[in-house]
Amino acid sequence: MISKQRTKSKASERGVALIVALLTLLLISALLMGMIVASNSETNISTNFRDEQTAFFAARAGIEEVRDRMRPSATNTLALSTYFSTSPTPLAGVPGGILYVTNPTGGETVTPWLTTGTDYPDTEICKELTCVGGIPTGAWALPAQSAGASYAAAPVLNWKWVRVMIKPNKSATGLARVTSVDGLTNANRVCFNGTNEYTTAAVTCPDKPVYELTALAVTKSGSRRMVQYEVSQGTFPPIPGAIVFDGPAPAFNAPNSNSFSVDGTDADTGPPPPNNVPCPAAANVPAVGGYNAAATTTLISDATRPASYTSGATATPAISNVSSQLKSLNTVDGLQALVNNVTAAAASNIYGASPLPNPSTLNIGSTANPVINVVQGDYTLSGGTAGSGILLVTGNLTFSGNPTYDGLILVIGQGTVTKNGGGNGTLNGALLVANMFDGSGNPIPMGAGSPPGSPSITWNGGGTASFHYDSCWVNYGSRPLPFRTITDRELIY
Questions:
Q1: Is the pLDDT at 315 greater than 60, yes or no?
Q2: Which of 232, 65, 67 is nearest to 159 (CA)?
Q3: Whole-angstrom Cα distance, residue 353 to residue 394?
Q4: Which residues of 308-342 are buried (b: 16+ CB within 10 A; e: fewer)?
Q5: Strand partners, 420
Q6: DSSP label at residue 281
Q7: Residue 99, pLDDT score
Q8: 1, 86, 110, 166: which sits with the fewest CB atoms below 10 Å from its CB?
Q9: Each residue of 107-159: pLDDT tens digit?
Q10: What is the pLDDT, as a whole number, of residue 433?
């Protein structure tokens, strides 16, 4: 029997491969579209983030420019403006209590003091001061200062303005952004003692005032960031003597010359005061200051001609224990902080072994133009050299010939001073000698509040050299110090 098997026609399967291919292509296309969308989203996110960061760092750049220009010795200083030359600096909220520094670009108008306007208004100010109708009362802002061309980046950064004001101890409205220093809302002046902020009801700070710097930056695409700093100027600790041996067991090979003299009577005639602000009232100090009672006894014993050490009506020799007046300078940590401050203020005037410039090339300064110099190593003041300012030497300082110096001489490091030969010479200001090494020549470790090592002054020969204390020259040291940042924060704008 013959059976017949039917075969299925393949015509019914035609087009399946095409459908599968189309579905696969559609799926791949969807995946590709998703990847493109994700990629564009990532690009947009990155672009926006970069723009936001550009605004953030532009705002910080504006504050850094103003912070630097607050120094009297800075390029295009703001210290000569009405705001800073008014003594005392007015509190925010009173006439002239706020200074704006503006940075318009491309012909735009920047008027932050028009708080209800549209040209980059300072809408933050009413969160820190009492306002009526969105505007602080009275003539609260001074005419704006312009951004300094010497600070400008290329291209110019898009910070629009920086506001400068004395930090208030919170506003009386209780709506201030700034936190209260002592829990009160009395709007008193906030001061800084080098470690902590505190408030005072007085018209001036016993130490240094705290300034609040607020900056707004806006990019061309509209990203906005607002940053706020609290800053206060660094200060020099007091130098309580015409010559200060800052360390125990001092070595003083004093001269026998009858013409040699050290006088702690305050001459108070130092450099021309900045902005017509006079020097502090004269205050006499010991001719020679000792680190502690034992050191003072040693120095008195070493003073071969007691009558040569005078200070006002104080009995001679005017050599006293100044341990309580040294404050931070009684430890190697405080001395190092002083060295760091002076070095920062010296900027490019730092000399020493290669690759640093040779100390023989330094500009020693003049009365009209004092200079801060740092010599990392030994240095010699010789011949008829006449200089002014601050001289920091980390090695041995040698005097020879007839040098004259107006200002502050700091020998911190090796802590040794040598005077060779006879000759004359005068120092108007103060000399501090401190040894940062132990008896074995090893650096004394930082961080433990350790006392410095033994300072030394060796006098070879006679001469008519004289040291005269001058508080005006001593206080000159604080003028060029930078304003340090106490804290910073970003504000929601």
A1: yes
A2: 65
A3: 12
A4: bbbbeebeebbbbbbbebbeebbbbbbbebbbebb
A5: 400, 460
A6: P
A7: 94
A8: 1
A9: 899 999 998 889 999 988 888 877 777 778 777 888 788 888 888 888 889 99
A10: 98
